Give the backbone structure.
Amino acid sequence: MYAVDLEPEVDGSQFTDNLQVRKISAFVFPRGLITVRSEAGFDIEEVVRRWDDNSDLLQHGVGALIHGLLDTVVDSHFTAVQTLDDKMEDLEGDLFDEQTLSGAVQRATYNVRKELVARRRIVLPMREVMNAVLRHRKDFDSPTELDPWYDDLYDHVLRASEWTESLRDIVTTIFETNLSLQDARLNNVMKKLTAWAAIIAVPTAVTGYFGQNVPYPGFGKDWGVVLSLAIILIIGIALYVTFKRKNWI
């Protein structure tokens, strides 16, 4: 089985971490338990502390030792999944933050999805480990006093597995929502550009009309200039107010 612990990256980013995986093998004997750990990072002292905290269980034999070891490993899984859940909540908040660049959200979503895949590879196989332990306990007629403890441990394993599955749906939703928000922002930009283009087209049309080399109302007169400016201002302001009410500007 595999225990995990988290070491923050040196860049301090809230969306990346260094997931350290600790492989643990165990030999179970009728009166003893031997663990083999290729990495030194696993805190065996935490396992010993749990044994000491539940010393009354040790009278039921090696099954209590196995429970303490498995309980420590499963708790490390919960911590890793909880950390990822917190990151997704922060990421959901950044989705609707206008100050956050969409590219940064995309990179963060991709990093979170990679971290989720790494956690699922560790958490999901734990169900098979627990099933094997429970099956062998029944084969060897282990003390029934430990059954409630193992049932609670198995429930924790299932909760961790279901939690990772729900996080996969959440990260997919975040990714799709980010794309939808990008499309919405692009539509807003296009509406604003269209609105301003329509406003700018007014003075262009008016000055082009009054610039014809044929007589027109006010041709050669001072009031003709005033009339053209008035037409530009009235139509331009009317368009601006209309687009503003529609929230296009």
